[in-house]
Structures are given as structure tokens and as C-alpha cells.
Amino acid sequence: MAASTPRRAPVGDGRIRDAERTRNRLLDAALDEFAGRGYAGARVSAIADRAGVNKQLISYYFGGKQGLYRALLLSWEETEEELRRAGTSLSEVALGYLRRALRDPRGTRLALWQALNDRPPIDEAEAERERAGVRDEQADLRLNQQAGELADDLDLAATQLAITGMVIAPIVLPDLAAALFDEPVDSAAFESRYSDTLTKIIERLRDTAVETDEPPPPLQPNP
To answer: CA of 107: how far to CAs of 6, 37, 115, in Å?
Structure first.
């Protein structure tokens, strides 16, 4: 019987592709675990099992659990940047976020764990990067306002918070949403109906009348 030929280790581009696939599998598995259990409850062994790799590779590629979590946040920030740049209007950007949340709610659930302060400690550089991200989002809204998509009298911070709340509401309150719409939030019918109303609400923001203390002009008699 002929001896089997030993499998060669990948070299060059093949090795790079294998490393990228392994990293991506670990990031996807980590998103499952962190979104479902939070940072404190997540286990690196469970992440490795989900990814189908040895858990030592988490340390090799990311330096451990904390490094993996931070890499996941950076990946999500890149996704957010793509979503913001993909839309040509404020309503399109909001719909992009909504569709992403409905079809893959893990990112929203991860953000909810962060809101409960379930995350590793961050240094000043990371804190500043997060603040810079918020400033960028406000700058985008300011451009929307200058383009006439938002009334001049709207507070942009409050507007961003309100739109964010509308986008994540189906993920935060799925049972209430399903009861109100008589459809599960992961159904095409719910997405279509909710998207339509969300678009209309955002478009109404450009029609907000600016209140003034000046009396209305007198009616002119018909000639």
C-alpha cells in the first residue's frame, strides 16, 4: 500500500488567506458569544468551539479575550462607517441601520450590554476614539440639516438620540413590537411596514415649523 502524501502547510498567499479566515471565524463566533452573554459571561472556550479552532488561537491573533472584544468593536465601527456612507439621505442611512439590526441583531445586543457597563475597561485613547465617532455622527447630521433634511430649530443631539431609539426599538422590545404589528420582528412584513413609517417620520422632521414671537402677517383683501 502506497504511503499517503503528507499535507503541505499553506505558504505565501494561502497562509494569509487561512489566517484571515480564522480571524473572521473567531470574530463572528465572538459576536455570537458576547451578544448573547455579555463580556463578563462570555467564555473563550465557547468562542473557540463556535469557530471550530483551538482556543490558543484567540491569544495568538488577539492577545486574549479583551483583545478579541476590542477587535470586534473596531470591526463594528468599520461597519457603521460603511452604513453612514452608503446612504444619500438621512432616512436612507437610518434604514440601513434598521435593516442591519433586524437581519443581524447581534451588534445591537452587544451595544445593550455595553450600556449596562458590561465591557472591559478602556483607556483614554479608546475613550477619545469613541467620542470622535459621536462627533463625526453629529457632523453628518449637521450636513443633513444644512441640506434641508432637518428643520433649523431641531436640537441635533436630541434628534440623533431619537432616531437611534427608533432604529433599535424592535431589537430592544421584540415582544412588544410583535404584539403591536402582529408580526415577528424578523419577518419581511414587519421590516417593510416599520421601514415605511420610519422613513415618513424622518421626512416629517424637515417640515417642523420654526416658532417665532412675531404675529402672522395680516390677511390681504381680495381685489
So the answer is: 42, 13, 12
